[in-house]
Amino acid sequence: MDSQAKDKILEIDRDKTILILSSQYLPNTGGVETSLKALATALTHQNVRVKLLTLRPLAVDRAWKPFESQGLFSVIRIWVPKFGSFWTRIGLHPKIQFVYHAVPLMIAGLIFLTLRGKKVGLINAHGFVPGIVGAGLKFFFRKPLVISLHSVIHLVYPDLERGNKIALLLIRFALDHADHIKVASDAGFDELIRLGIDAHHVSRLVYPIDLDTYSPRVHSNFRTGSDFDARFTVLFVGRITEQKGIKIIVSLARRFSHMHFVIAGTGPLDHYVHEQTKELQNLVFLGFIPDTELPRLYNSANTLFVPSQEPEGIPMVTMEALACGVPLVTTNLGGLSQYRNCSAAIVSDSSESALADALLKMQARNSLSADKLRADAREYAIKHFSVHSFENLIGVRLRSRGEVSLDKNE
Asked: Which domains does the chain have, with CATH numbers?
């Protein structure tokens, strides 16, 4: 996949604001939220003003502010009703979820661009629903649109190929009206090509990783006991759900008493994992770990375990772990197959037996060549997660005032 479109360079003036649209952001937890924070940080470090328009947190019950500003980065959170388990229920119905997300984003976007549109040089929509909203806003305000896709379409709309014509039409409307599309994986790229999208309009979505913060370290405060230090340590970081393979991790902890399993994160299976730790001495449940503590946590592990049972994009935790020099054991579902050429053991299926074999093989490799595994992981991160340029980061070129356009078609 090319890193940037070849036939046209999308340009915006350096003094213009980038408006980011997303259905989710902090204090929600997840890879998209973390990547958006990293993106905003990387953009503002290049003296670009960023406005993030998002919904109030729906997946967690935490305090939130409707308006938040730090330097060149501002967040506007839209209030939407939240009725107990209503959020969980609508998550099972994509059509209802679409309306629940799209309508407030569209209304807020219309108001914002009506009031501040002259200052906005680009709309960057993250996800399919924000992408559709962004295409609508582009229609009204004639702003360039870059859509960033963290997952692949058939995961979000599994019935798309079985006749969901409305969803297909809306997605095609968004993709056809985007000036550029960023995708997280080769699977996402291939899917867009099958839909007839010009390959020159698609490039790799770069997740900016702070390679100084996420780097190999000799010692970690998370290693707090002799048993912990001595055993091969398997780390999971993410949502505590069955889809993420949590029950497989518990089963493998029961099976491999010579390994130490550490789970960090929150989710519906928190209580289940906590109860299992009472029976299994080699299973540790840390709960929520703040971002500032993650580098030390990664460095405490011999491998990051990603036993996902459903396809997904490229989890942010995998990139952070590789940057810390921690090899992966993962399924090959969705964007995870992207790691075939790095320091990782990728299983061809998501069964418990296949994952068990992969862990044993990684343990054997670690005992023979731990330093090489870590060096290869770090090298892969430096090559793939460094932000080399603004074009590489968001798919556009910054143009200073008075500078001549580089677009050869003009």
From this structure: 11-208+387-399 (3.40.50.2000), 226-385 (3.40.50.2000)
Q: Which residues of the chain have pLDDT under 50?
A: 2-7, 224-227, 404-406, 408-410
- Is residue 247 within 8 Å of residue 273, measured between CB atoms? no
- Structural tokens at position 395: 């798919």
Beta carbons of 307 and 242 less than 8 angstroms apart:
no
Burial of 151 (0-12, 13-18, 19+ CB in 10 A): buried
Spatial CB neighbours of 82, under 8 Å, sequence gap ≥ 6: 56, 58
Residues 236 and 264: beta-carbon distance below 8 Å:
yes
Question: Which pTM value belongs to this model?
Answer: 0.79
Q: What angle do CA 107, 151, 343 make, to 5 degrees?
A: 145
Report yes or no: 206 and 331 within 8 Å, Cβ to Cβ.
no
One-character DSSP codes across 110-126: HHHHHHHGGGEEEEEEE
